[in-house]
Amino acid sequence: MTAERQKTRSTAPAQPQFLVSDDELRLIDMALEEDKGPGDWTTRWVVPARTRATARIIAKADGVVAGLGVASVVFMRLDPRVEIDSALADGGSVRDGELVLTIRGPARAILTGERTALNFLQRLSGVATMTRRFVDAIAGTEARILDTRKTTPGWRSLEKAAVKAGGGENHRFGLFDMVLIKENHIAIAGGVAEAIKRVRDANTRGLRIEIETRNKDELRAALDAGCDIVLLDNMDVQAIRECVRLVRQRAPQVKTEASGNMTLERVRAVAETGVDYISVGALTHSATALDLSLLMHT
Prior knowledge:
By secondary structure, the chain is an alpha/beta fold. The protein is 42% helix and 19% strand. The protein has helices spanning 22-36, 41-46, 68-78, 107-137, 156-165, 183-189, 192-202, 216-225, 237-250, 267-271, 282-285, and strands at residues 8-9, 19-20, 52-59, 63-64, 83-86, 93-94, 99-106, 144-146, 179-181, 209-213, 229-233, 255-259, 277-279, 292-297. Helix 9 links the parallel strand 11 and strand 12 (255-259).
């Protein structure tokens, strides 16, 4: 649902298949600086400078992989002589014990980058794995799984890419690419209709308008005022079903989104109401990191 973030080739002398945005490159550099500070003294004092090694990142649990590009660039930022061989692409499924990534090159760069690369790869693969579970749970319905803005600060583009790798779709990227009128906006405006009116009067950018509704009265007001998407917030399954039916009858062009307390146990029943989208904050705020390990030899 959101506009794509522009990707640019890393300014590091990286292999051409690994593209990261300028923001992501800055995040990589910040993460490396945070970890190594003035120097990785353990590696520098133990490992001779000319030592070369091969490392393999192995899955220790079943899951869906994401973040291969950013993890690879971590090593390349430390030494351009590092070579990467990926066993699969983002969105690929991996089983416990299977190979994810092979890294060859200067041993110091591999050891210094190990934890930072794994932090990116494990976190993003966890998001992709969680997303795939939700997508699989609603398979055969017309509903689609969306993410939210409940992302790790600074990681939004990476986590949203991981959601897509898991088979989900992106909601708005930020506050700038779509209007979402929430309950606090409505409270300040004095009601649903007035909030929508203010947006429509000012919306010279032509942004799509979504509004949060909590009951049928607010839903009717939103449909009468004119919007593109209605968010059915924190409703039980029966209420969602009735609201979807109301939208189909009165404004079939308007899309419906359900949100609030979306769990794997509940999401299929919500999808079967006929709702268009289901947004799940847990994809990014509660995903468990995928267990991966890096083993190396010279």
